[in-house]
Amino acid sequence: MTANPTPQPSFSGDHRSPARAALNRWKAGVGLAVLPHRQPEVKATAKVSLQGISLSYKANGGTQLLALEDINLKVNPGEFVCVVGPSGCGKSTLLHLIAGLQQPTSGNVRIDDKLVEGPGTDRILIFQELGLFPWLTVGENVEFGMKMKGISKAERQEKIQYYLRLVHLAKFKDSYIHQLSGGMRQRVALARALATEPDVLLMDEPFAALDAQTRDLLHDELERIWAETGRTIIFVTHNVREAVRLGDRVVLFTFRPGRVKREFLIDLPRPRQLEDVTVAKTAREILDDLREEINKSLEAEYSHEAAR
Amino acid sequence: MKRLARYLVFYSVLIGVWLLLAKLKVWPPYVFPTPQGVMESLWAGFADHSFWIAIGVSMKRMLLGYSLSVILGMVLGLGVASNKFLEQTMGGLLVSLQSLPSICWLPLAVLWFGLTEKAILFVVVMGSLLSVTIAMETGRQQMPKIYGMAGRNLGARGFQLFWHVLLPASLPYIVSGLKQGWAFAWRSLISGEMIFVSLGLGQMLMMGRDLNDMSLVIAVMILIVAIGYIVDGLVFRTIERRLQQKWGLTPAT
Fold first, then answer.
1. Number of structural domains, chain B?
2. Is 80 exceeded by the pLDDT of residue B152?
3. Residues of A with CB below 8 A from B246's CB?
4. Are residues A102 and A190 in the same domain?
């Protein structure tokens, strides 16, 4: 499945230079060269930069609840960053903020140094529950973002073909969403997001609900598509192994309020496999750190129950 | 097959009893017509085109009034659903207004518009507007939020978002309201047409009364029921079935 020679598209955008770099990296089997931590010169080239992001909201009792606290994060063009944390640490919320669907209480999100003020097609979020449109066919779903952008019909058709082929769903162009399996729906969501040609792809636990085989397959495909298209990806998951399998960098979040606890650079050679000893070993290290946070989240849950 | 047989038995018995009662001449024919008389009235009505004209006039009013109330109802419903203040204030008013029979709007309409086409149209619109508005409002609330977010995320804004995302996403939730709106509009129209001379099926009914022609009255009543049933069965059931197929909901049996 991975050896499918997908033709390069006849259309190309400026996002393709990091693509080639990523592809070469991938072919050479070399891990990403270390990006130095928070050095000032990185700022100029960062694709996504989060500065002092905090978010609080009113809880049921009327008390202010701090969901995210002082998040600072820079993501380089073409980088694959995985965000890991216990459930309830605000990692999904973070993606909504980057997507512009929600506004932070303080701090700001910048894409290419431009302030994010609302949703934009330069960054597309793939929701955990996908949000595919059941009233449209697979092809029309993929077309949707392009239609909103006002791309001509001929070009849209060409791109639908291209992106459906990229996710191996060309035969299902005229199917409706309910006729597809979970893994196929995942791929439609991926194709729909890619078709608007965003610089940044935001993925919210996309493979959490899938069986292990389908997930493995989609890991391979995502890695391949990432290498081919050179998108910047921010991938949220609670599965540390998945994060190590996919990411150039893994960012560990604390439990409530969500803060960046630690960052790990993963310079293991690609393509990786979930079963690789090196992946498992790296995951182990991160997991030790994560366990502390998971315990905190469990404690919070239990004390909540006890209080009831 | 079994269902057809059941229908056949039921209607033969019904018409048989009717025939018997008419034959016994318990009541004079202008009170209780014979089935043959009704059939003849139906035949004659179609033959001299008076029924066709009446149906045409009534359907034209229906289409115009119903489309108006669907458009207005959607705008109103969306407005009410998207604003908390409106929802808490207007929402209750809309529900209470729905208990008002739509023919009650006729005196008001006549004073405003006179004995004109506009007055009838107004009654039709008022008859179905509230159903459509309430359906749209609840549909908007029941609709999963994810579709709106996904639409905005993919670059849809303003009217585009409404037309390409919010409207289709809420269709399964509002189609029953649209159907109810149609039924209410149909009733309002016939009542409205009965009040003043204006062509249409309602007036046909009153003409039967004026002429002491009970056969004509029954014939027109049959027509009104038939048209209501056909629109419901052909238009709305088809829409519902299509939606269910597309969305992968349980198909209607």
1. 1
2. yes
3. 134-135, 176
4. no
Work out the minimum CA distance from A178 to partner chain B, whole angstroms: 5
**Domain assignment of residue A296, given as a range:** 16-122+199-307
CB contact under 8 A, B164 and A147: yes
- The number of C-beta contacts closer than 8 angstroms across A and B is 66
In this predicted model, what pLDDT tens digit does every residue of B84-122 receive, in sequence order?
888 888 878 888 888 888 888 888 888 998 888 888 899
Q: What is the ipTM of this complex?
A: 0.73
Q: Give residue B252's pLDDT.
A: 41
- Label residue A44 by pLDDT band (50, 70, 90): low
Q: How many residues are there in chain A? A: 308
Q: Helix (H, G, I), strand (E, B), or coil: what is residue B249?
A: coil
* Residue A120 touches chain B, beta carbons under 8 Å: yes
Q: Give how far B40 is from chain A: nearest CA, Å.
A: 48
Side-chain-side CA neighbours of residue B41 (13 Å) = 23
Q: Count Cα neighbours of A50 within 13 Å in the Cβ-side half-sphere.
A: 25
pLDDT tens digits, residue range A233-264? 999 988 888 888 888 888 888 887 887 878 88
User: Which positions in chain B touch A179 (Cβ < 8 Å)?
Assistant: 248
Read off the CATH number of the domain in which B84 is found: 1.10.3720.10
Of B154, B171, B248, the CB nearest to A148: B154
Same domain for A30 and A98, yes or no, is yes
> Do A182 and A208 belong to one domain?
no
Print burial letters for B59-80: b (CB count within 10 Å at least 16), e (below 16): eebbeebbebbbeebbebbbbb
Inter-chain CB proximity B155 and A192 less than 8 Å: no
B164 touches chain A (CB under 8 A): yes
**What is the per-residue pLDDT across B171-228, written as a single tens digit (0 to 9) for each?**
888 888 888 899 999 989 998 888 876 788 888 888 888 888 888 899 999 999 999 8
pLDDT digits (tens, 9 = 90+) for A140-171: 999 998 888 888 888 888 889 888 888 888 88
Residue-wise pLDDT tens digits, B5-32: 998 999 999 999 988 988 888 888 778 8
Which residues in chain B are contacts of A120 at CB distance < 8 A? 155
